Automatic annotation (TrEMBL):
Organism: Granulicella aggregans
Keywords: Carboxypeptidase, Glycoprotein, Hydrolase, Protease, Signal
Annotated protein name in UniProt: Carboxypeptidase C (Cathepsin A)
InterPro entries membership: AB_hydrolase_fold, Peptidase_S10, Ser_caboxypep_ser_AS
Signal sequence interval, chain numbering: 1-25
GO molecular function: serine-type carboxypeptidase activity
Entry superkingdom: Bacteria
Annotated spans, Disordered: 30-50
Keyword check for Hydrolase: yes
PANTHER family: RETINOID-INDUCIBLE SERINE CARBOXYPEPTIDASE, SERINE PROTEASE FAMILY S10 SERINE CARBOXYPEPTIDASE
Length: 501
């Protein structure tokens, strides 16, 4: 999940805890050192494993589900954090292992686990679903478990993972793009050593900001930890967020237009790779040129408005007023204005009622973002504590507002400060001529639009096999895997990538 774009400012008040009122002497002063003390926390349980089964393709798959912890230690060997992982393994020789990360910053790995690639799934993120629907786990036909073991890692502050030091030290150690890569890479290494899997083929999958993490983790593992990665799968990645000023550069508008068109085509039953290829050609051709001309060519903007109106099906006056440059949140309100609903930036065809329809700007959070916390939290906590039997009274954070609020943005590029992910992708591919990369997007995702990856990958030189870095698109939005056909298509594409090794 990606909190980094406009309108993803989190409703922090929802996460507040109210302490009991205590009468104290008037002269009592707060302890100025209170916030620097290490938190007093109950011990997390020992690792716990249980045998499980699922039905896949008419066959029974037997596997072991494990919930456990790995310590994060500082330079003095002191534990400063505990990372909780959930793994699914099959007892068979020569099994690959895949490490999975979600995004945020502040998202646990539950979305990839119980939504996309784990052996069980719970419904969330689709039109018509409700946070109060039963959070029932069922076998996942899109799982990758039959061809790779799976390890889902929750960064510090998400899931049950936690820091053991005060907040000021926590931010220095964990809550920033560079330190995030350093300690999570070490966690991958520690899991491999602990489970005697250093000789296994290794894959990384990251979603959204986890997709930004993916190339950086791969490069860091190669160069700093000494672990080679065979394959990298980026699910709806925020790969290259630096796109220039919307006032001067055509690139921001080029990135979002095709996904807006895809949402319209899907409603019309016209969403096909062939139709979208024509949209991509227009976007990187005539649309880019006319935007670049701006007011220097009086005919340029009218051409843009006419074509964008035709492609999107939006009201011509709305498109004219925007100059054919469709700001995402304005579009999501306009798309379903007559019904009093909002579209989601994660999938414009997933809607919710707008509680403030007459306000000049959107006042509520994203329809999907608000609706997925309950089912994923309920399903994951029930699985961990009841099915696996890893008993804890700790709070589970599917989406941590605290992590996102405290993330280091001092470099001026928000959550994406630090080394460029796209730069590390180039370096990792050049370093390992056998590394294969699949970048997988939903056509209609406006949180991390596919066109951003298309433009980025087109600037990476071909190094050997031109198919080593590939961008694939599927019907749906950010969580396109919530649609069975797209989930199965992703599974097939990843299976092909793994089989190439």
């Amino acid at each position: 999940m990606n909190f980094a774009r406009t309108a993803m400012t989190l409703a922090f008040g929802l996460n507040c805890l109210v302490a009991p009122f205590t009468v104290v002497a008037q002269e009592a002063k707060p302890d100025p050192k209170a916030e620097t003390k290490s938190p007093q926390l109950n011990d997390l349980p020992a690792d716990k494993s249980v045998p499980q089964t699922m039905e896949l393709g008419g066959k029974t798959v037997k596997y072991t589900a494990t919930v456990g912890t790995l310590p994060v230690k500082n330079g003095e060997g002191k534990s400063v954090g505990e990372v909780v992982f959930t793994s699914y393994t099959i007892d068979a020789p020569n099994r690959p292992v895949t490490f999975a990360f979600n995004g945020g910053p502040g998202a646990a790995s539950v979305y990839l686990n119980l939504g996309a690639i784990g052996p069980k799934r719970v419904d969330f993120g689709a039109e018509g679903q409700s946070p109060s629907d039963p959070a029932t786990l069922k076998d996942n036909p899109g799982t990758w478990l039959d061809f790779t073991d799976l390890v889902f890692i929750d960064p510090i502050g998400t899931g049950f993972s936690r820091s053991l030091v005060a907040m000021d030290e926590t931010k220095k150690l964990f809550y920033g793009p560079d330190q995030d890569i350093a300690y999570l890479s070490k966690i991958v290494y520690d899991w491999l050593v602990k489970n005697q899997r250093l000789q296994s083929r290794k894959y990384i999958v990251g979603e959204s900001y986890g997709g930004y993490r993916g190339p950086r983790l791969t490069s860091y593992l190669q160069s700093s930890i000494g672990v080679g990665v065979n394959g990298l799968v980026l699910v709806s990645p925020a790969l290259n967020p630096s796109t220039g000023s919307e006032d001067l550069s055509p690139i921001p508008w080029m990135i979002t237009l095709p996904s807006i068109v895809a949402a319209n085509y899907e409603r019309q039953g016209k969403l096909t790779p062939e139709n979208m290829a024509a949209v991509i050609d227009y976007t990187r051709g005539e649309y880019m040129v006319d935007l670049g001309k701006g007011f220097s060519d009086p005919a340029a903007t009218p051409r843009v408005v006419k074509k964008v109106t035709e492609l999107t099906g939006l009201d011509a006056t709305f498109v004219k007023q925007s100059g054919g440059r469709l700001e995402t949140q304005a579009f999501l309100r306009e798309e379903f204005r007559e019904t009093g609903k909002l579209g989601s930036r994660y999938d414009p065809n997933v809607t919710a009622y707008d509680p403030f329809p007459y306000n000049p700007t959107q006042e509520t959070q994203d329809p999907i973002l608000l609706s997925i916390i309950a089912p994923t939290t309920t399903a994951m906590v029930d699985f961990v504590t009841r099915t696996v039997g890893w008993k804890t009274d700790a709070r589970y954070n599917a989406l941590s507002f605290e992590v996102n609020r405290n993330w280091d943005r001092s470099g001026g590029r928000g959550a994406f400060d630090g080394a460029e992910s796209a730069t590390d992708l180039r370096t990792a591919v050049a370093t390992d001529p056998k590394l294969r990369v699949l970048i997988a997007h939903g056509w209609a995702d406006l949180s991390c639009p596919f066109m951003g990856s298309v433009l980025t990958v087109s600037q990476i030189p071909i190094m050997g096999d031109p198919t080593r870095v590939a961008v694939h698109e599927y019907p749906g939005g950010h969580m396109y895997y919530s649609r069975l056909a797209s989930s199965l298509a992703l599974r097939k594409d990843v299976m092909d990538l793994v089989e190439k090794h």
